[in-house]
Structures are given as C-alpha cells and as structure tokens.
Amino acid sequence: MIKFAQFGAGFIGKIHGANIARHPGSELSYIYDVNTAAAEELALKRGAKVASSPEEIWTSDVDAVLIASSTNTHAELLSCAIKAGKPAYCEKPIDLDINMVKNIVQQAQNTTLPILVGFSRRFDANHLGIRQAFQNGDIGKLEMMHITARDPKPPVLAYIKVSGGQYRDQTIHFFDMLRWLTGEDPVEVYAVGAALIDAAIGEAGDVDTSMLILKFPSGALCHINCSRRADYGYDEQVELFGSKGMAISRRKPRREVSIYKGESVISDGAYPGWFERMEPTFYQVLDAFIKAVQGEATEYPTLMDGLKAQIIAEAAYESLKANKPIQITYWQPE
Amino acid sequence: MIKFAQFGAGFIGKIHGANIARHPGSELSYIYDVNTAAAEELALKRGAKVASSPEEIWTSDVDAVLIASSTNTHAELLSCAIKAGKPAYCEKPIDLDINMVKNIVQQAQNTTLPILVGFSRRFDANHLGIRQAFQNGDIGKLEMMHITARDPKPPVLAYIKVSGGQYRDQTIHFFDMLRWLTGEDPVEVYAVGAALIDAAIGEAGDVDTSMLILKFPSGALCHINCSRRADYGYDEQVELFGSKGMAISRRKPRREVSIYKGESVISDGAYPGWFERMEPTFYQVLDAFIKAVQGEATEYPTLMDGLKAQIIAEAAYESLKANKPIQITYWQPE
Amino acid sequence: MIKFAQFGAGFIGKIHGANIARHPGSELSYIYDVNTAAAEELALKRGAKVASSPEEIWTSDVDAVLIASSTNTHAELLSCAIKAGKPAYCEKPIDLDINMVKNIVQQAQNTTLPILVGFSRRFDANHLGIRQAFQNGDIGKLEMMHITARDPKPPVLAYIKVSGGQYRDQTIHFFDMLRWLTGEDPVEVYAVGAALIDAAIGEAGDVDTSMLILKFPSGALCHINCSRRADYGYDEQVELFGSKGMAISRRKPRREVSIYKGESVISDGAYPGWFERMEPTFYQVLDAFIKAVQGEATEYPTLMDGLKAQIIAEAAYESLKANKPIQITYWQPE
Amino acid sequence: MIKFAQFGAGFIGKIHGANIARHPGSELSYIYDVNTAAAEELALKRGAKVASSPEEIWTSDVDAVLIASSTNTHAELLSCAIKAGKPAYCEKPIDLDINMVKNIVQQAQNTTLPILVGFSRRFDANHLGIRQAFQNGDIGKLEMMHITARDPKPPVLAYIKVSGGQYRDQTIHFFDMLRWLTGEDPVEVYAVGAALIDAAIGEAGDVDTSMLILKFPSGALCHINCSRRADYGYDEQVELFGSKGMAISRRKPRREVSIYKGESVISDGAYPGWFERMEPTFYQVLDAFIKAVQGEATEYPTLMDGLKAQIIAEAAYESLKANKPIQITYWQPE
Questions:
Q1: Which pLDDT score, from 0 to 100, does residue D240 have?
Q2: Which among C150, C266, C277 is the top mutation candidate for probing chain D, defined by the most D β-carbons within 10 Å of its own β-carbon?
Q3: ipTM above 0.90, yes or no
Q4: Hey, of D145, D148, D184, D192, which one would you mutate to test binding to chain A, going by the most A CBs within 10 A of its CB?
Q5: pTM across the whole model
Q6: Which residues fall within 8 angstroms of residue B205, CB to CB, at 6 or more apart?
C-alpha cells in the first residue's frame, strides 16, 4: 500500500484524492493546501491528515507525493521531493520559466526516483490504440501526422495573461503527444496564428487560433490545428498516416444516440470539456505512477519529456513572431 | 449487340430504356406502350421504333424483351415470350394471382430461355457485400437474420387496394432477399401487423406496419420489420448474425456530410425514396440479363424465385389473419 | 451520509462496495457473506465491520441495505428488510419462483420504503438518451421497437441449469427495458428459439438463440433478438421507431480507433462483456437509491417492475413451448 | 438539343462522350482525335462523325466543344474556340506554362462565351453540402479549413516528369476548391514536402508528400495535406471550422458493409481511385455547362478560376524551395 501525501485540494486535487482512495494499492495520508479549509474537507472525506506545512510531509513516512498545487509551486516542491527522496507525480507544466525547468531536470539528473509529469493524454485508450497500431507496424513507416486540438471556450482573460499563452498552455499537450506517438523529437516548427475568437486575446499578446507544421528527423511531417473555442465542445482527434495505412484516434462522441428525423440524423456530439473527455485517464496515470513507485518497469512521462514539450512551445512562439520556420534545439543536463 | 424490344414507357420504362442505350452491349429496337405518346417520346430519345402491336415484336428479329408494362400484362407477355423463344426480363411481380404465376412457371418448365424477374436488390453492392462475406465463411453458420424495410410514405389508397397488400407488394422484395442471402427456403412464418399509420389502410383490409419471424430448415431465424412510412426517408438495412461474427449491409446515407453544432452532430440521413437508393442496381440487373442472353453463366432471379417469394407472402397473410405461425409449402411444376 | 450494510462480497459485491465508498453521500458500515474470508477482505479495504449474522444488521443503525448475495437469499432478505423498515437495493432477480416474488410484492404493498431492483440498464446514458427523445416527442407516436441483446458467450452449463433459462436470466433485462422505455405493459408475446450454439443447452431444456415479438396496448410492436453468444463481444442496441422519426441507442464501441488498410477500415468492436459495457451504470443506480433513501423524488425500478418482467418471461416460455402467441396477464397485490 | 464536338477520345473522352449521349439536352456530333482509330470507335458507339481536322469543327454548326485532348493542346483549342465563338468545356489544366494561361485569359477577356475549366470537385454532392452549410451561416465565420488529398499510388515517373509536379498536377484541384468553398483568394502560402514514397520522384525534382498552410484575407487559415500514395485507396476529406460549428465532407466509403468479428469491426474503406470516387461529378459538370450554353444563369469554374489555382501552385513551389511563407500575387487581364 503506497502512502501518499498530496499538495493541492482544489478541483484537480479532489480528483487525485478520490483516485488515490479508489486505487487498491494506495491510500492518502497527508494533504496540504494553503487553503486550509479545502485541505480539511478533502482530508475528512478521504481519511487523511492535514499537514501543517510542507516540511511535515518531507519528514514523514509517506512513500510518494502528488503535486497538484498551483503551477508556481511545482518547481520548489519537485526540488524538495528530490532532496527528500520521495517519488513525485507532478501536474504539468513544471514551470512557465524554461530555465527553472532545466534547473529541475539538472537536479534530478543523478536520481532514479520516479518523477512523473502529468501528460494524461498518454494514457487515453484511443491514443494508446493508434500508438500500438503504429508500433505493431500496421501503418508502416510514418509519413504524416495530424492533430486536432480544440477547447470548447477560451479561459478567462486573466488566466490567459498568466498561462504562458496558447502554445505553452494548450498546444503543449500535443507537443508531448507527437513525441510519444512517433518516438521522434521534431527538428523544425512553423507556426501561424491569430486572435480570431476574441480581439482581447490578441491585445494581451496571444493567439487563439493556430496551425503548425513540424518536421521529424525521419522526414515525416506533422500538422497541429489548435483553437481555444469550438462551439460544439471539446474536440481532440489524431491521425497517423504511413506507408502501409492510416490509424485514427477518432473524435469521441458523448453518447451513442442517434435520432433520424426528416432529412437528417442527429447524433450526440463532443464532450462539453477536456475534463469530461479525459477524466478516465487520471486513474490510469496514477496507476502507472504507483507501479513505478513499487519498482515495476513501466512507461510514464518524465521531467525530460516535460522539458522537451516546453522547448518546442518556445520555438513555436519564435516562429509565430518571425513568420518563418524555426529549428528546434534541445538541451541536455550535464 | 443485343437488340431489345421493351413493353412499357412509363417511369420505370424510361429508366430501362436509358440503361439499354447506355450499356455497351445493347440497343433499343422497339418500344410498345398502350399510351402511344409515351412510346413515341421514348422511341425518339433512344432511336427506337414504336411497335404497332405486341405481335410486331414477337415476329421481329429482336434478341430479347424487357417487360416494364403494368402488372396485369406480365403473365400474358411472358407466355408469348416463351412461345416466341425470346429471353425476357420481367419487372416484378409476375402476377398477383399465384395460380397465374404457377401457370407461367409450368409453361417455362422445359425451356432454357433466360427469364429474369426484376428483384433488383440482389444487385445492390452493399447486399452483395454481406452475401459474399457469408459465403466466404466470415460469419460462420447463420443463426439470426434481420431485415429493416421502410418506405418513406404509403402509396395512395387506390394503389394499396390493387397492390395485393403490404406483404405481396412491399415485403415480397425481402422474402426474395432472405432466400438469396441465405440459400435457404424458409419453412414457417409468423406475421403480426396493424394499420398504425393510416386507419383507411386498415379499412381497406391491409396493414402498414408489420413484424415477421421466419424459420429456416437449418434452424436459423429471420426477423423482418416493415413499415409503409418512415418520416426520415427510405430505410433498408440487413444483418446476418452467425456463429463466427455478424455482417451488416448498413443504412446508406444520402451524402457524407456532417455538421457539428452545439451538442449535436447533424448528418445527412436516408434517401428520399427506394428509387434514389436503388437506382444503380437497375443497370446491374440489365447487365446480368444481357450476359445471360449472350450465353454467359450468370446468376439472376428466376421465375421460380418470383413464385417462391409470392408463396411466402401468401403464408404471411394467412399467419396475420390466424395470429399463429404458418408452415410454408412450396410448389413444383410437373 | 447514508450508512449501508451489504449482503454479499463476491464479484458484484466488490463493485457495490467500491461505489458506496466512492459516493460522497454514503459509507459502508457492515458487510455480511457466508464466505467470511471474502467479507473480511472487503470490510478491510472499505473500513467496514463484518456482521456475524444477518440479524446483527437488522438491529443495527444502518440506513439501508444492499442485497448482492446469491439469488436464493434475496426473497428472505427483502422480507426481513421490510420488517426492519430498512430501504433495500436488491440485485435482480427477486426470486426464480414467481410465487415468491408475488409474496414479496404483497408484503411490501403497504410500505413506502424505497425498494429498488437492480435493472441497471435503466441508468445507461445511451438508453436514457433515446427515452428522453421519445418522451420529448422527437419521434412521435411509437410504432416499432427493436432490441438486440447478445452475450459474448454462454454461461457454464451448471449455471444455465439453475438460471431459470434464457428468458428469465438474460432476456428479462429487456422485458424490463421495453416497459421502461415505452411506458407500456405488453399484452401478448410470441417467442421462438433453439439451441443453435450448444446442443447441451437444448438437452438441458433451454434455448440459446431466440426471437420474440411483443404487442403493446397502443398497437406498437416490439422485436427482441437474444443470443447467448456473439463472437465479437457484448452487443446491445435499441431502436425506437415512431410516426415522426427513429431514435437509436447504438452499439457502443470499445474505443474510437480506426485503421485504414488495403480495402478496409478496421475499427474497435464491442465490449468483451456486459460488465465492461454496463459498469458505469452501477454507480448511477446507487446514486438513485441514495437519493430515494434521502427522501428525494426519484425514479427507480421497483419490486412491481421486477415482478412484471418475470411475468413476461413466464409468458414467453409458454409461447416457446406452444409455438403460438400468448396473452400476458399481470397480477396485482391485494 | 446542344450539338457537341469533342476533342479527345481517350479514357476521359469516352466518359464525356457517354455523358453527352446520356444527357437529355445534348448530342455528340463530331469527335476529333489524333488517334483516328479511337475517334472512330467512339463515333460509332455514339452516332457521331469523325472530324478530319479541328478546322472542320470550327466551321461546323456545333453549339459547343468539349476539350478532352492532351494538356499541350488545350490553349490552342481554347484560342480557336474563342475566335470561332464556340462555348468550351476544357479539362484542367489550361496549360502548364502560366504565361500561356494568362494569354488565354486575356483573349477571353471581352467575350461572354461560356468557358468552363473542369474542376469537377465543385460538383461533388458532399462538398456542395458543406459549402451550402457555410453559406447558410450554419458554422458562422470561417476560422480554419482542412483538406486531405491522397491518391492511391503515384503516377508513373514519366508522367510525373511532364506533369508540372505535385502542386500543379494534384494539389491544384484543392487550390481551386478552397477558393470555391470559402469565396476568398488566399494571400500567403507555406509549403513543405519531401519525396518520402519514392526517391526517384525526388531525383526528378519533385515531392510526393506535402503539407501546406494558406492564409485568407479574413484571417482564416487553411491546411492541405497531400500524398501521392495512400495504401487504402483514394482519400479526400474537407473540414470547415467556424465560429459557430464545423462542417465536414467526410471520407466516402466504397460501400456500407461492416463485418463484426472478434475484437474488430471491418468495414469497407476508400474508393480505389479518384475516378471511381468522382465519376458522378462529370455528368454534373456537363449539365452545368449545357445550362450555361443554353443561357441559364449557372455557376461553374471559369478560365480565371483556372488561372488563380495555378498562381497559387506557383507560389507553393516557391515556398517549398525557399522554406518560407510566400505572398501570393494575382494577375488581372488588361
């Protein structure tokens, strides 16, 4: 039984807490949140203690930590976890400042501690299905890849201003996904975008509608289209096209209901939001992390995966500003 | 080049005439219709002669006849074609009076003349697809079969009164189809039905909404549901369920257009009518008939197929009236 | 917080126990199972006590009981629950002996205790979707209904022998479903069936492949096809056809993955079994029961619903044996 | 009745000849082909005369010409048609040399003769469906557009060398389509591509796998992905994403056949080639042209549409070579 301490008792913290309780191999021992009332509520429901400070956690007997607090606390908590020798499951992103991320990657360089960055789409059954098909050779050599990534509506402007922008906040999931699906690190990116949905997003220096093309070392090409608003809900679809066929992780409908009426068939459309669509993956990520903590050989997104996705996002912004393709240069710790 | 004489220049006659003109192996030589103006119009468009009487056709050098005149003329024309030694493509049904049909089958008993009854659904690409799958063994031994057969709207009451009723007029296509798909002649039928769409249909002694169950000698079961009116258009779907899988000839959508809007996906629904849905099959039937006339070994619906479908329809009406399952007894010419 | 005592710690008992733990409004206080080891294991995981006897539960302060023990204990436990005034959530069937069921219905006649029978399909999102569409008037007046119900493989023969047979064990879910979807009690049933999958099932006096037609008071017709084995997994689909359109609760695919290769598109098929397909409904049923216990007006399957489904099953067996349609006579407590 | 003279009796010429014969408003009077045997065969089948020279056609009483001869003859024949005052339906492209195209546009500048360039996809029912939806306002203001365009296999190398390359030969259809669907002329294009399918295509100076992004004056973005080879057949799909929804002209399956077997559903995939997929459009194009010749107000692709598509193709090649986005400058006749 893996004993967890968890940082953060907000919306996503409650999900993690429930999953830790539900998983047969884990239990929640401590919860810490600067919002003490939230921490207490979650602790009560899950039979955990409220930690009076992070220090209480680092010196406790917990087997692992789950970091679901606000982004600006991730780097410091990861640093403490590494020092304390506690495996860590950290929500993405690691930090908006890429130098902070490199710093953490450097600190973790000589440890074998499981540190997982929460790119939960890697655990989606549909995406896993096309990855498996590709790895089985079902579609041959990869030639083209397409990712559709559309949120139902833009976040509030206040959030957009501190989010790092569309590529660091939204597209970043797919920068990770394309690496994970293909096993390749892209070498060049071209990004175009505009604030077509809300002029205020443009005035805040960001874009809300983007198209990108990335090149892989193998010669394969990848297209991403990304919107902050789809009237019909959360839309995510991925296509891998290769020399012997194509694999699609299709738009997932909300339900399998169809009404035939007049000249039309009216079927259920998309999920209302990313969370409803991706909710089952959180349990799967936790399960992978628990296996890693228990010493099983298992695959999960690492700190370096988190860093690489952010490096691609930086290059995408550079391309957007220059209106030309940009070479992507990765970074290695010493 | 097969020279055709055609009886009938109405709606379906024009379709046959155009297909004879379009087919590289055939040409239209004569056309006969009691409506001389219609015959002349079709003859002009297709470069054919108007026959002054059926006799002119039977003594001409035409290689084959296409009978697309009204149902009550079919038996007599088939009888003449047999005597004249002219291969015949005859629209269904052969005759509403089953004794007349037996009579024709008896007359044709000792001839090898190609005589084709126009069960065009046997030539539909989708239905052919599931038949092939079944014959290939893809679904193993047949256990259950389902047929959905729904017209967009009832014919006018005047037609219903002379049509022979739902089973002899509409369901009959599917009595033929189930024999053709399975290679078995059903041995028992249970039919229930009611006039749910229009009480006047009930007053005329007919039903408009029916469900049937048929048993095959192999033990397999078949369900048919049949409606004279589907608000959303012409609906035809067939499912073969076997020991190793299932094959479906799916509802065919009018177009592959989808609109994602709000919570729904609005896609194109069914075809407006059976003709729009089945139009391509008429050319395929003609092609099979031409091959048969040219002496190629080819498969097509015969007079005996026409008779058997009608025998099943008779048994279905008997079941409907008695509200109990009825054994089906077939008939053989001497 | 509703305190639960649960009877049964087997496969389905573990599911119920986990859902009681996960639900924010409930907790598991007692668990009873004749298999004490199983009871102890579940109690430990969920923080509950093992009851030394059913009596300990009836005299405890629990707010409700969940009966997930073997079928032959249901009637007695329900009887005790009624006497003890404890709301009960009982897995189906109530009892294989229909007189026992009537007896329980009679006992519960003058109580307002929430007693829920576990017809979980009533809580499936897809089925709820077509029910809503029908109730909204989207498809007009109901005329035909189709239910496809196929299990991936037959249960072991030993189970079949004590299960009550295909209609009392498998089809019964759909006898309930058709009442729930239409709001009508069928008045006549015709059933045909055979042991096409395994001759031993036939030798045991049962069938494994069936087709049924039921008539509703409104004149609408309902077809059910039911197989104990679908090579491709668990298959459940429901279609409501009415005067203004059709609503389908479609086959639910396991995943939304498609591989385009050669001439085919290979997509994910059905779920491996009913449990994987229906798993989310168990939480929904529990939620409805908790609401009922808390006094909220909520809809759920009652003892009388359980009885009516069994009465239809009895009539279906009578029809199967007699090979003729059978009138269905319901029963009312005094 | 519109009398046609046709240039070209090859594969596509036979299709046009059959459609002229089939259309109720047209007949084929003359056929010219440098391959006299081919001309004679088509003339015989369709009841037309073989013209001994193009001049015989220009001085004849034909109402219109259909130019389906080899590309290098199009410009000269169009020039003659303009001088002779004969409406012309010309297969695309007008000429591989863009200056020749401008020359023809200039010559046609002061005529009102119907001159149609054969971009047949404008007449596809599915593409028309999403155009209608967009024009109806169903998807609001356009923001993103996606075109998938994949041929089943590359043409022979000898053809590729004279074809003008992937963008002038294959992608050009979609440069026209995006203008037609959106009503906007793109202002910038970025193209990346490689010879991933066959190195010999690269050695011949061309690419076989490409991704492009185009910008519209409205700010909307368009992505095209284009391959010379899809293992699974001909693949064409178009998506319009707007402020209020999305419209998709979906991949059209060859048939509506599905086999459920084991864990999979195996359905019919794509058409074997563009011709099988697009065949019905040729009749529609001819019908539009006949209407135009008869003086009806009707929409069809013009010489200027042909020129604009080629101008975009030129800019795409410039972008491919420079690996940077290129502004598109259109041209107007004096």
A1: 98
A2: C266
A3: yes
A4: D192
A5: 0.95
A6: B165
